[in-house]
Write a structure and sequence with these properties.
9 helices, alpha/beta, seven-stranded mixed sheet, single chain
Length: about 220
């Protein structure tokens, strides 16, 4: 797969949104769309959309626009959604069980192959067709199954202990709910941090801003 040098993180973070909107267009039977038409649906300028796509070589034809199916497939390729990267989940509590059962891993480039916890009450239970295993079995499991990614739904202190072990076992990417800053200690691994509290505080800011506009 081609490497794209110098593409900003802002552009990369817009790709999943493009992919989702294009998927909706396909479901609605739309075959082609212009950058202007896409901009109206996404709240971006047509110029911004063209600039984003030009980072990857550009996909449209002047006077025609974008073939929706082709563009959807190209973005899937860029994101690596066909890879099916083998993934494990640590922490089968409320958050972990929700992620395991509700996330469509296979549609997002991953394949959930193992779930681990330390709670005797959870070990042996079935979750999304997988048996929750004790963390003590992780080394043998990774040796046999060779997962590449890990979802961390465990406390920060536990994550800080587990991450170096996971890296040693071949994990190269983390979907991190733990609030432990993995990238600070391990800059060479891929990390996507999820801070639900940050998102909620951002919503608080947006509500306050709108309230201030009305009062002003």
């Amino acid at each position: 797969m081609a490497r794209y040098e110098g593409v900003s993180n802002f552009v990369i973070r817009r790709l999943p949104r493009y992919y989702r909107f294009l998927g909706d267009l396909l479901k609605n039977g739309v075959d082609k769309i212009s950058s202007q038409g896409l901009s109206q649906r996404m709240g971006l300028t047509a110029s911004q959309i063209r600039q984003d796509f030009n980072c990857f070589g550009g996909f449209g034809q002047q006077g025609y626009g974008y073939n929706v199916q082709q563009l959807h497939s190209e973005i899937a390729r860029i994101l690596g959604l066909q890879a099916g990267r083998r993934t494990i989940l640590l922490g089968a509590g409320n958050l972990g069980s929700t992620i395991a059962t509700q996330m469509q891993f296979s549609e997002m480039g991953f394949s959930l192959v193992g779930i681990f916890d330390v709670s005797p009450a959870l070990i042996g239970r079935r979750l999304n067709n997988l048996t929750i295993q004790h963390i003590d079995t992780l080394r043998d499991f990774c040796a046999a199954e060779k997962p590449e990614a890990a979802v961390l739904c465990i406390p920060r202190s536990s994550a800080q202990e587990m991450v170096p072990q996971l890296i040693a076992l071949g994990i190269v990417g983390f979907w991190n709910f733990s609030h432990y800053d993995i990238a600070l200690d391990y800059p060479d691994v891929a990390v996507e941090n999820v801070h639900l509290g940050d998102s909620l505080m951002t919503l608080a800011y947006q509500i306050r801003e709108r309230a201030d506009e009305k009062d002003g």
